[in-house]
Amino acid sequence: MTIATIPENRSPASPARRYDLDWLRVFAFGMLIFYHVGMFYVTWGWHVKSRYSSTLLEPAMGLTNPWRLALLFFISGVAIRFAMDKAPMRRLLPERTMRLALPIVFGMAVVVMPQAYAELRYRGEIPPGLLSFYGQYLSFGDFSIIVPTWNHLWYVVYILVYTLLVAALLPLLRQAAKGADAIFGWLSRGGAWRLLLLPVTPFVFYTVALDPYFPTTHTLWGDWANIAHTLTIFLIGFMAAKNEDFWRAVDRAMAASCILSLVFGTLLLLAWLNRTTVRADPALLNAVLLLRVFYAWSIIAMLLGLARRFANRPGPALAYLTAAVFPYYILHQTIIVVVGYWFTRHEAPAGVEAAAIVAATVLGCVVGYEIIRRLGPVGMLFGAPLGGKGTKSKEIAAGGADKSARQQPA
After folding, report:
1. What is the pTM assigned to this prediction?
2. According to the model, what pLDDT value does residue 11 have?
């Protein structure tokens, strides 16, 4: 059985490869890695915390919160669309499932385990002894955190679930694509406000109707508000992937999206600086929460437009990073948590500590990937593409049916 192609509104001039989205994916994952370094230092709760925790980084990190992961889910939706339109389902679905499921299972059993150990040692819940803890970890020991855990790999879990859901509902999505084409056509024929306002509508609803009642858990079950947000942006990417009306609207709205991003970001920064007043006024707090929704979409639209104009080109760096960034993502948080935990037990100046954690994270990811990509099929346990020893780019491609199932971002 071959997969039926969803109708697409695509011009003959459409690029064969979406290097712009590959660059954005690398950029978003890179930001996420350094964001997790920052989590060691801000006052927000995390697995382990530095003795130098402060609010210094919180304004900048807070301005990335609304859109970092949303951008990744959007790009993942685009990638799944290209893959499903180019490869037979009987080959694509098992390959895609394996590509995502193996890092999840191996990550929970091996890669993430040191994070749980470091966190529970930091909380004083367990005695020293990694090997003795490992047995408890795998046997669902009774701790203040769930074990085994997928921690930062929740993103991969959700992408796998959404991929299977899209595959199961593909006939319905084919019908929905016709309505999406009409909507995207309407977006492209009007002013920039159409693109910058209409797609925000479902997220405004989720913010009002779901967010207050379903806190984010990253555990699938019960995580209904987060699922609504991430699944919707994933499906928008899926529907918009090959629709030229949507991308023309992005191009036309680029200037407006840049201005709105700056304005909304400034307002959110002012809200953070006056957070005590904002939290004390329910109406003002709700207004800020809604502002975050519009800010997130304006940033995503801006980045999509800027990348299309300035970054839609291949290169050796992109070829390497596109293959490396998923293994980097698998490895990075364990390195941060373990090295950070070591510094909670060994005092060092703040600058030395921060520099050491950043250096260890970057070096650990780079060296780790260089080893992983030489392991052949074993490297798939860490998210490396099969045959990842080379540096050929695994771009989001509109062509190359024989290889498209391996050319999509995870």
Report:
1. 0.91
2. 41
Rounded Cα distance between 153 and 101, Å, is 11
Please report where in the chains the tokens 């100046």 appear, as a residue.
Answer: 349
Domain boundaries, the chain: 19-105+150-406, 113-144
Q: Which of 223, 200, 219 is nearest to 66 (CA)?
A: 200
Structure tokens at 386: 């099969």
Would you state the pLDDT for residue 404?
32
Q: Treating both helix axes as pointing N-terminal to C-terminal, what angle do 89-106 and 154-168 enclose, rounded to 10 degrees?
A: 160
3-state secondary structure the chain: CCCCCCCCCCCCCCCCECHHHHHHHHHHHHHHHHHHHHHCCCCCCCCCCCCCCCCCCHHHHHHHCCCHHHHHHHHHHHHHHHHHHHCCHHHHHHHHHHHHHHHHHHHHHHHCHHHHHHHHHHCCCCCCCHHHHHHHHHCCCCCCCCCCCCHHHHHHHHHHHHHHHHHHCHHHHHHHHHHHHHHHHHHHHCCHHHHHHHHHHHHHHHHHHCCCCCCCCCCCCCCHHHHHHHHHHHHHHHHHCCCHHHHHHHHHCHHHHHHHHHHHHHHHHHHHHCHHHHHHCHHHHHHHHHHHHHHHHHHHHHHHHHHHHHCCCCCHHHHHHHHHHHHHHHHHHHHHHHHHHHHHHCCCCHHHHHHHHHHHHHHHHHHHHHHHCCCHHHHHHHCCCCCCCCCCCCCCECCCCCCHHHCCCC
Residue 374 has φ and ψ, to the nearest 5°, of -100, 5
- What's the pLDDT score for residue 398? 37
pLDDT digits (tens, 9 = 90+) for 239-262: 999 999 999 999 999 999 999 999
- In whole angstroms, give the CA distance from residue 340 to residue 53: 12
Q: What is the mean pLDDT of residues 207-235?
A: 97
Select from 289, 192, 167, 205 the least CA-distant residue to 250. Answer: 192
